[in-house]
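Cross-posted from the bioinformatics board.
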Amino acid sequence: MTAPNDRNDNAGVPVPVTPAGASSTAPAEYPPASPAGRGMFGTQGSGDVSGFGGLVRQRKPVEGSPRPYGGYFDEVRDALEEAYPQFGEAIEKVVVDRGELTLHVRPERIAEVCQVLRDDMALRFELCSSVSGVDYLGADERRLHVVYQLTSMTYRRRIRLEAAVSPEAPHLPSVTAVYPTADWQEREAYDMFGVVFDGHPNLTRILMPDDWEGHPQRKDYPLGGVPVEYKGAEIPPPDRRRSYQ
Amino acid sequence: MTTSNYATERETTEGKVFTVTGGDWDQVVSGTDPISDERIVVNMGPQHPSTHGVLRLILELEGETVREARSVVGYLHTGIEKNLEYRNWVQGSTFVTRMDYLSPIFNETAYALAVEKLLGITDDITERANTIRVLMMELNRISSHLVWLATTGMELGAINMMLYGFREREYILEIFEIITGLRMNHAYVRPGGVAQDVPDDAIVKIRKFLDLMPKKLKEYENLLSGQPIWLERTQHVAVLDVTGCLALGVTGPVLRSAGLAWDLRKTMPYCGYESYEFDVPTHTDGDVWGRYLVRLAEIRESLKLVEQALDRLKPGPVMVADKKIAWPAQLAIGVDGMGNSLEHVAKIMGQSMESLIHHFKLVTEGFRVPPGQVYVAVESPRGELGVHAVSDGGTRPYRVHYREPSFVNLQALPAMAEGGLIADVIAGGASLDPVMGGCDR
């Protein structure tokens, strides 16, 4: 060796050094912050782990479809317009996508629209297949959508109703009077998204414990969790993992 | 020892014998009628042998008559829908298969159909993949109905039926194990097709099963159909007519037992069901007996469908041709279940760097699904199993909601039970065939 060994006198003997990020006492450290944000590929928000961290996915607003829609969709729309005079006021837009018809309904009108859809001879949506929620966080202020899948057994048709409410005033009328089957499904939507169905006979939590706080399927609900140590390395909790951001 | 007024004693050759009598209680309670005056609330479950898992029933009883019934669910909530939002689209199959654990193939198929519809590749699914899906679904329907028959038999006092039902179901699970590597929770039907091809020895075993099952069905019928206790416990019990079914959203065998021949395989076909020959069995009584007959007949129809599907199995690919979607590995069944085939591992590790990159990208990141939403429904053994899937254009589902027939159908329990006897709550609940794993998700 040419350079003087100024560190210690047992040169050549390996000294145990704790590898970065593998300590059992300290959590795994993130790589130094880059302008693009933290994470191995600099991703944030989009969940993009492809390496193209600077790309941000844009969510285009859903737009109404032009007529003719094709299939039975025109018939359904015409029949509803005829049977329900307030159509123009109650229906925000009509979307046809992937062979499915979606009527975006003003939330306060949802029960009326369901009543007409069920009772009118030309519509006859006897079965309410499903009621659920979707949280479009960041889309606009009415981000909580309640989605109704209706089935007409007479005509063998399906349509979807969508009503959007804001988390500050998450109220819309219950459709249980029209479709008793919506009872538990509305309770689930309340449980998971915090949407309040006015006029529901017993709007309580159904899947989560009664004393649970928050509505777990909202997109801004914290995942929680604890870091887990595995073979010396620490795996951060789900919402702090790289691919989860 | 003292001798009370209520028990007289006498000496016999075997020893002392006490004869216990009612004493003066008749006089004590003469002013009241405990049968009609007293209402008690009984909490049944969530741990109870005849509630099909962790279903809790709160029953208000007047004597043996149920005046009010309320069901409480949620004890098996596992957050699968939320979990799906944090996995890529293909990993979803592994989660949804665990919802309704008696009909995993249906959960997977409904999910796969929804993802395929979002991708716009529904028409690209190969014929062989569709045939295999039908084959697996119908086998699964038989196994699910067998469990229903077994558990319902047990709950109504026919313990031997439970042994027989589970015995034949085991045969189907063995077939599943040969094909998918696992008895349950297969993750076999995947977006784009099925995970891997059906091996020849499975076909042989299915053929054997087709010979065996009709004899077994006769055996069950000999055992139950004419038996007075079974008839007493099922006929005119827990009646729900078509109006009640539709209002409460009840579908599947319960709706068909009330007389409406609504079967999505016929009315809104998928996976090529429109090209198969089969009937939709119905009954008109709308009672437990009708549901029993409908399910037995459905097993027979499923056997027909399995046979037709076997005859149609032509060699061909079981995954879509699009390599941007199709799972990159040629999977194979090893001793420890399904995994990457050794040839594939040899190729990506030894020969082709590009294959390795492609595999890595598709497995870790997954494919992208164009934004939008779809609703797809299949006819599961319990009724309409619907999937509402929303994509925001990313590699993971934005939201997946399962319209679980167990969840929806359970709402009908008070309508069936109230006004009947407490023993009929068991029969009525069992006839809905709820699976709590599916109900609570």
